[in-house]
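hey can u run this one w/ G3I bound, need the structure tokens asap thx
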Amino acid sequence: MNVRKSSSFFAPLLRGRAGVSEAFSFSTSPFLILLLFALSLSASAQGLRDVFAPDVLVGVALNQWQTNGQDGRTTAIVRRHFNCITPENVMKSGPLQPVEGQFNFRQADEVVEYAEANGQQVIGHCLVWHSQAPSWFFKDDAGKPVSAEVLRERIRRHITTVVSRYRGRVHGWDVVNEAIEDDGSFRRSPLYNILGEDFIEVAFRAAHEADPDAELYYNDYSMSLPRKREAVCRLVRRLKERGVRIDAVGMQSHLSLHHPDLREYETTMDSLAAAGVKVMVTELDVSVLPSPWGFNGADVAQNFDYQKAMNPYTEGLPDSISARFEQRYLDLFRIYRRHRNQLSRITFWGLSDAQSWLNGFPIKGRTDYPLLWDRDYQAKPVLQRIMQLKDED
Ligand code: G3I
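ok here u go:
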């Protein structure tokens, strides 16, 4: 068979083919044109999620003004680049059950309907968290802490009502969020002060009973810190020893240009995998702003007063900072590709810089640039470079 050299790309492909006419020329054939057109269409429809498909979900946190379907720019990007969404706030216990026994599911229902209409899995965030819980949850009518039995029943009732409502429609739940301090001790939240560590097992068991097929997660920030990492791994092992289902641990990954040390970050991924769970990157963003702490936490209880020096880029980013931002994301995604057998999900904590919680935390009124789409919903150059990492394998 005489294949023209002009189609060297196809030569190996066709070398083994039988029955192709020897005189057939590929340089002008409709077949080649059609195939190239199809390939170019496929490449242009490629999204961020294809960098890790099929084993690792790639998702984004969306707010209620995005999941009500009114934001066409968001939906176009979500449909191409992601395969799962996390509601930023509307599935937390405060918004869902603001008054005991009175559930407000409208916005949470919108999230699930939006996801199903746009081919997305739903990550339920979050069932039990000391923050954004309704004020009544931990107190009695006199404003005193409730008994262990009352709190246990309130946790079970909340989780059973919420998880069973979305049974079979939510891929997995952040069952407990941020229960451990940076030094590895348990956070002295009302949850812990009243129930001790048991509140965690109560929550996981209630979620599993309400939807036996849903994945169940523990989620926390600053997971690169050795004592926090070790404490979370101990917690995972204790839950598994007691026969409690826990599928994965979320490393929130609220990072900055220089923190954390990515060797510690990778060590945490290996340690969690060794503890017998999948690893998830659940709230990824990279702040380019100076931090009042000097590192990056996400303890929403802490806030600092505004100072202009802490908000240096109100008119845009200098090239030098943009370059460091791009390199940081490439470093992270090379780590994710190296660890993709340990990973089950990567979720960005927001789509566009305009919506990021970091514009208001830890200092209100700042201009941060932590995500892959800018304030006009235009993809930053680093997105294409991340998608090309596939070719580095
Ligand atoms: O919905 C009310 C609105 O009715 C009211 O007028 C307004 C006035 O303050 O507040 C609105 O609630 C705000 C809520 O976001 C919804 O926009 C809360 O004040 C505000 O504190 C809350 O911030 C959220 C934060 O969690 C605190 O819970 C952020 O959007 C959200 O990005 C952030 O996400 C957390 C994760 O859930 C857990 N990991 C850390 C991460 C960052 O803190």
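The longest helix spans residues 319-338. anyway lmk if its weird
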